[in-house]
Amino acid sequence: MSFVVSALPAGQFQPLFGLPDEALAERGIVRRTVDGPGSPCRVTLEDARPGETVLLMNYEHQPADTPFRSRHAIFVREGVEDRSFAPGEIPPAFAARQFLSLRAFDASGMMIDADITPTAELDAAIERLLANPQAAYLHAHYAGAGCYAARIDRA
Q1: Which of 2, 54, 108, 120 could tie 75 with a disulfide, CB 3.0–4.6 Å?
Q2: What pLDDT score was predicted for residue 37?
Q3: Alpha-carbon distance 53 to 146, whole Å?
Q4: What's this model's pTM, rounded to 2 decimal places?
Q5: From CA 111, how far away is CA 33, in angstroms rounded?
Q6: If you average pLDDT over residues 121-135, what whole number do you get?
Q7: Can you tell me the distance from the alpha carbon of 150 to that of 132, in angstroms, rounded to the nearest whole number?
Q8: Residue 137: its pLDDT value, please?
Q9: Can you name the residues that pair with 151 across neighbouring β-strands?
Q10: How far is CA 74 from the centre of its chain?
Q11: Which residues contact 132 (CB under 8 A, 6 or more apart)?
């Protein structure tokens, strides 16, 4: 079974790029300059490089009106454009981590399965979760901090 990883679209964040820190703070957003690894951009699904500027914000990645509705902190590199991935392609930010958490949701947004998997076994875990006909989509989370990473769908 083939799958595709989807990053967040840049368009929803572009109005924030270049805003003064005070205006960002009014929205609960913090601008940071990256000084080391660990700031994965949710638009490019790459780790921001030292010296790059990121926006740290709370993002609702699971808007379904269920007990699994969820928001969490994410990083977005300023000035980035949309990035897409080919079917079966593993984004660089996934490959840079040892483990990912995968959560399978049905069409109504109820979680029906979950797994923590070594990145080296990610393809097999995705395929296993998507083999369930009840699974409408998956969410990947970075296992350490638990932050939302990306959505995964059947290709």
Answers
A1: 54
A2: 84
A3: 22
A4: 0.94
A5: 35
A6: 97
A7: 19
A8: 98
A9: 6, 139
A10: 8
A11: 104, 112, 113
Two tokens, residue 63: 């808007």
The token duo for 136 is 């409408």
Residue found under tokens 């947004």: 109
Residue 94, CB-side half-sphere exposure with 13 Å CA sphere: 29
Spatial strand order of the sheet with 137-142 comes to 3-6, 148-154, 137-142, 99-105, 111-118
Rounded to the nearest angstrom, the gap between the alpha carbon of residue 64 and the centroid of all alpha carbons in its chain is 17
pLDDT in tens, 31-89: 999 998 889 999 999 999 999 999 999 999 999 999 999 999 999 999 999 999 999 99
For residue 1, pLDDT beyond 80: no
